[in-house]
Structure formats: C-alpha cells, structure tokens
Known about the structure:
alpha+beta, 30% helix, 32% strand, elongated
Amino acid sequence: MAGLSLQEIADFNNPAAFTRSRTVAASATTSPSSIDTSTNKATLKTQSLNESFSLVSGISNRLELIQGNLLTMLQLANEGLSVTNQTDRDEIFGKLRSLSGGIDDIVDATLFSGQATLDGRTLNLSYTSNGTVDKRLELGNYYGANEGGLDLSRQPSYAVTDTYYDFYSSSRNANSGIVGLDITEAYASQVQSTEVELDTGTYQIEISYEGPNSTVSILNSNGVLLNTVEDVDLSGSGQELVDLGVGATISVEKVQLLDSVDKYPYDTVGPAKFYAKLDYRRVFRQDLAQEGFSQVTQGSVSTTYNKRLTDSSGGAFEIESVELGGVKPGQVGLASGSYSVRVNYNGANSSIEVKDSLGNLKYLDHKIDLSGNDKVSVNTGLGLTFTIDNDNYANSTGEVVALVDYRASEVSNEEFDFRQYVTRIEDALELVATDIEVMANVQNDILNLNSLLNGSGLQSSGSGAFVGQLIGGALDGTTSAAFASNQVTQAGAEIFQATGNATAVQAEVLATRAASAQLA
C-alpha cells in the first residue's frame, strides 16, 4: 500500500472509520461482535453440477482476495515490530484496521442465491441434474470478529452523529427572534441507565430558550418527545455541551451580543424556540483484536468522598452525583487522576471549582444560581459533569466537597503489540489456505466428473469451454450418479492435482512464522 498523508493517517485511526451498521441498542448489547457467529444458519444447497461449479469458483476467487488482504496485513504487522516513531506506528495501525474491515466487506459481498457463503454456513453441493446432495462442505466463518475463525477484530458498539439545519429549522429560527445560538456539533456519548439509545435515523432538537434555565429536548421524526434536559445554562458567551442522555451530546455555541438583552427577551415575553436536526447512526467500531487492548478506552469516574450539608429544619444541600461528560471543542480535557470538587453555597451567587491532586485550579464557575430547589447540572466541558441538589436548604451559606477518581477516555494504539498480531494473522492464513485447498479439490472433482461423463480431456478450472458445456446441458441424465461417483473414486490422485497455490501459501506462512520466530 502507498504511504498515507498525515490527514489520511488521522482518518484511518478515527474511531468512526471502517464501522459496520448495527440494530441492537448499545445498552442491550451483550457481545462486542456485530457478526452472528452461531452455527444455526440455513444450509445453502445447489441444484446442479453447473450451480456447484459456479458456487465453488466464486468462493475460491473471494478466498484468494481475503488471502491477499491477510498477506498484506502480515507484511505490515512485521514492519510494525521495528517502528520507532508514532507517525509510522499510526500509519501501520490504520492500514491494518482498513484491511481487516475490507475482509468483512468481501464476506458481505460473497453471496449465492441471496445467501452468504463465507459466514460458516454449510454448503450442500449437487453433482447431478436433479439436485441430489453429493458433497457437503463446512467452510470457516471469515468475518474478522469471529473469535472461532479469523479472530482479527472486535466490534464494540459506537455511534456516528451529525447536526444540521434543514429548511424548516432555518425558517423557524429566523422568525424566532433568538440571536446568538448555534448548535455546532454532536458527539456519541454513553446512554443513561434510565433511557434508551436512539435508533438509526433523523431527530429534531428543540431548545426552549430562557437564559440560564433553558431546556433542550429531542424528538423523533413523528414529533414524539424522547428526552428533555432541564436547567441548561445558555446565557452569556462560550460553548455548552448538552448530554441528551440517549447516546448523543450536542455542542451549543452561545454569544451575548447586547448587555441589555441576552439573545432574546425571555424575561419579559417568555421563552422562544430554537431548532436543529440530528442524524444518528448506530454502528460497530472496527478495533483490532488483542487481549487487554482497546483503541478507544472508555472513561470512568467514581466518587470516593462526598458529604451533604443539612440545616436545623431538615433541609439538605449536596453534590448529588458526579458523571462523565464530553470535552468542549478547543479545550484540553482533564487528565486521568484524583480531583476535588468544591461548591461554595451562597444562594444566587454560589460558585464551584475543580482542583487536581496538587491543588491546581482546573475549572471555576464563580457565579452560579443555586438558590432554587431544582437540581442544577454543571458541565465543566473538561470531561466531568455535576448535579447539585438544594433540597430546601435554609442556611445562607455553606460548603460541600466531593473527591473523585477520574479516568479520561482515550484513543491510542501505543499499547498494541504487533508481535501478538502477527501470530493472529498467521493463524488466519492457515485457515484460508486450508479452505482454498478444499475448493481446489472440489473444482478438480467436478472437472474430472465432467470429463468422465462427456469423454473429454481434463479442463482447467477457468475454462470457458467447460462452463459452456455445463450450460449447454452436458449432463443429459444418461449416466447414473452412482456410476459417476464410482469412476471419480477410481480416478484417485488424478482428481486432486490443482492444489499448488494452497500448498505454496502454506509454505509461505511457515516461512514467515520461522522468520518471525528469529526476530523474537
């Protein structure tokens, strides 16, 4: 493969590259694989010698394409053993992802009578003109995420998202009177435990603008409300990340143009509506398979200390929860580590700050209104969000502190072991070489049977004359299948001559394995 540009390298390593569609909601997914690896698949049956030859020839061609991908992957993985800089490592890793995804594409495209042929399905081949089963084949499952087969990839749940304004949204927004709001981007995010992940499709985002107490809702294409996020602060200027809780987070850019009116006079005339569209696509990521390795490491957060305030009348004030959040565009997220979250309660003039374990200030909101009894969500835009609850707290001031352990999500291949992956590819090559040999034997079987029945010489597997004979009805039913089978059996070793390619591939794999052992 030719060298990649820096942009191409970044594209090849994007988690959304080489994805596959899925239908099962992320919260209900029990397996990282998008491929059905069960053995209870409908048997594929041919009805004649002509169909059998066509099927076997097609499979042989596709197996050779898969073999070509694997040999290129083996070369790349061996190159990865000696890479010394991250750019080269990223390029090799990205190409391996592309080639492993390409194998799945080949399997998807290898169909016969509308059925997949390389997904571990049983093949019943007929050598007669009446559909009698004369040969049963059990080939491997060639999907890369099949742990019992190629075992080259893993495909965890993921989502691809996009926001835009259609004609309806643009027209409504232009007439709303709101100035200074723009929904700029959307990101895949975790589904909240109380919600259901969005299905693949297009959705409506609806903002009811009331400054610091705005609400953001998501509705399906039929206008049915799916979820609403309340108390979203869309006042002032900056960017606000809003986690919709159903698998997507949107980024809202806000600009306050006038001192007297913040985007819209909601305090005098009531809230106004702002609209955008969200495209959501459920997919599986394409990750290279390796024990203990994931290109995308999911973030995590746990609270190690959190004490609530209470007053004499039974009211309480607390940091109710600390959760993962997205990182705002242009911001550097928090590094993994321990942090303290401090809320200084002072009614409408409260403040919240986040410091690392060395006492360095990482986030500060010096004026946040916590005077009401509603829960308030605070999104730092650095990877953490907080929910603060004022449950009729009567004291005028107070302070609460929570200590949290935070692990940031990362996209990295630094822990990937190319040496282990070389072994996986070698094992996959042995599997495909075995089935290529099986296909060569079956093709020779058919060619010799045709020769015996028609009195012609042995034809090559690619012979147009032979295909023409089959199509023209060379098998006229005058020779019994039992007699033909007996004649083929007597042909002995002559039937199994065309296995040179498969043998050569096996020799190449053994040679490569020996070379890899020397490198070790």
